[in-house]
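agent: user wants the full assembly modeled, not chains individually. Plan: 1) parse entity lines 2) check alphabet per entity 3) run joint structure prediction 4) return tokens. Steps 1-2 passed, two entities, 362 residues total. Proceeding.
--- entities ---
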Amino acid sequence: MNFCTQCGSRVATRVPPGDHLSRFVCDACGIIHYQNPRIVVGCVPEFEGRILLCKRAIEPRRGYWTIPAGFMENGETLQQGAARESHEEALADVTIGSLLSIVHVLHAQQVHVFFRATLAQAQFGAGPESLEVELLEPGRIPWSDIAFPSTDFALRRYLEDRESGLEPCHFASLGRRVADS
Amino acid sequence: MNFCTQCGSRVATRVPPGDHLSRFVCDACGIIHYQNPRIVVGCVPEFEGRILLCKRAIEPRRGYWTIPAGFMENGETLQQGAARESHEEALADVTIGSLLSIVHVLHAQQVHVFFRATLAQAQFGAGPESLEVELLEPGRIPWSDIAFPSTDFALRRYLEDRESGLEPCHFASLGRRVADS
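--- prediction returned ---
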């Protein structure tokens, strides 16, 4: 951040009085610009035992597989956001179920919140951000081509829980991702 | 938002190509400035059946009671944020437990994430954002002076769950708050 969003003056970086972290501060208009983690929301959609996965058409990780997910928007609930992303990326109408996983992606200042979900029908397709979309048997999931560690985490916990019949919420924290291979 | 954080030019408001929502766009440097919900994180700390509550020393809702909570910072987990807020607002060292509630505060573009928590000792005090801090028997909770609906929701679900012995995660969505009384 270089400039103040309110008045356009150049911002300084320092710890404000009473605070303990360095912030972007505008000395012209006095505003402190806080930076906070953003929420990525998505779901693991299932239809008759198969999982809906999308091959990404955009960076980062173009060509790798993921579950429908994206940045939560203002004015929507987490469940609405997860359903919206499924509709946008996989042209799929999902019913959002229980909370599956929350992954802190610390280096990206993101919190990834994923739900269990079901498709009422095997109707789906590639939205503009997907190269292709498939309903895959768990044994056919391309584990070495999964786009993000948080997706891998959610898929593995989802399948384990399906075996056990329980639906807990799983937490994980991730540091910096290793270089793309 | 009036000015671009990167180049300081005045931003425009429109729907970018391929998008479906209006965004702040900088025509000078091309950046799209997305606005996303912020996370407020906190906990319900318990010690020997009593609940730790803080009387707020700052606006909004100065003088009303709440659980320790505040904006999640970059670089921390939700659990670390909840523990940090307890330390800052109530000078209390808490052990964070299971996920209690997620409340979508739609009009404020916030998601409130609260955990169950315990205090190992009855050691606490008023941090700079609190007028006073008390360990209260559930029967003494000042329900008519609770600062925020999401706090009220979390406290009620916490006490109900304690009766039942279960620890589910509760969801709620709140629209605009009625005027302060």
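agent: reporting back. Chain A has two helices and eleven strands. Helices of chain A lie at 78-90, 149-164.
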